[in-house]
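FYI - complex with calcium ion, inputs then prediction.
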Amino acid sequence: MKSKCNLLSCTVSILVAASAAAAQLPAGFRETEIASGLSNPTAMEFAPDGRLFVCEQGGTLRVIKNDALLPTPFLTVTTDPNGERGLLGVTFDPAFAANHWVYIYYTVPGSPAHNRVSRFTANGDVAAGGGTNVLELNDLSSTAFNHNGGAIHFGADGKLYIGVGENATKTNAQTLTNLLGKILRINADGTVPTDNPFYNQASGTNRAIWALGLRNPFTFAFQPGTGRMFINDVGENTWEEINDGIAGSNYGWPNCEGACNNPSFHDPIYQYSHTNGCAISGGAFYNPTTMQFPAEYIGVYFHADLCGGWIRILDPENANQVSDFATGISSPVDVKVSDDGFLYYLARGGGGNVTRVEFDNTNTPPTVVTLSFFTTPPGLDLMLDGQRRTTPFPAQSVVGSSHTLSAPSSQRVNKSNYRFASWSDGGAQTHTIVTPGNDADYSATYQTKGRGAGAIRQ
Ligand SMILES: [Ca+2]
């Protein structure tokens, strides 16, 4: 599918046929739908306090608190929701706990319309008062409603980074005279840091340009701990890109889509073709405060594709190798990892929902059963894994594990001599048992030897 089908508007047709069927996940993982009925959701972000904020394209910012979608929006802005425009991004000030500042990216309606970053102050679960405009972006085309970007996140340097699309005018991506087709970097108050890479080449607001040559950086992410940045750039006809976010980089659009081996441009660290999807649409590193997934997931980069309906993982520690994670998701637009170690995905299809993926570690510990060992007559000894023990005795054992069980040939107890005769399970005198799924008994029958009726003569 070609992405001339726009990033968000393309999903309208998908949405019609969508159902909220569960995703297919790797063994050991399960998922739970946390919220549904979200209207054309576009992006989500966790507040430092664990609440999950979700943007609806039409201008409402919703709050999911304690696994419940609150009926009252955090805020509603008047926006232009045509095509890929609308409320497209949300993030939280690094000092949110103290200042309660929430930032959004949305399209201000008008002739022409333009995109804006605005800051609101939280009062509990709703915004108190109106917004403070932090950054006004360039006027948008009156005919092209696509390629708006919209992702906003704070870097480890405390600066606000903003992904801006080229609004379907390809040349925008290569000029330092506007903010379109770029990653921007600003201070939280909207001023431009003087150490920005093009500060001395660009003028005015364009000094906010931090990287260029992008088509539609709809999503990007910072890795907790390292501060490393991955930028997802939505391609046109062939390639979806994951790019290493490096100050001053030119990522090549429109001179190239995907890798082009031109030293003027930074090639993507990974690209996939449109045989696998149509638009890369969400990124999150798995570096939570509390690990919930198995150790091999530490540091991987979850990313999704809108039309492919999948989430895959890229492993930066393993040569950027990519492997499957989830499939069967109806138009995923964002993925996030919570501090407590769960993966959340935001799906535009299926009526608009947020789903949490958990690793089902309750089934992971090996199952233990009790094996009980007896002799007839009771009180004789047996050898379990080389240790001689007097019957009867129990032993805890992991299902499926092996043990060596042996009955001494002859034993003398209370002045009587006994000789091994048989095992209850039919095994040889020394044999291997594999622990079954349930508690089990093993009994050795001995016969007396020497004098007495029924004794075996030596
Ligand atoms: Ca590129």
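The chain has two domains: 11-359, 368-449. Residues 11-19, 453-458 have pLDDT under 50 and may be disordered.
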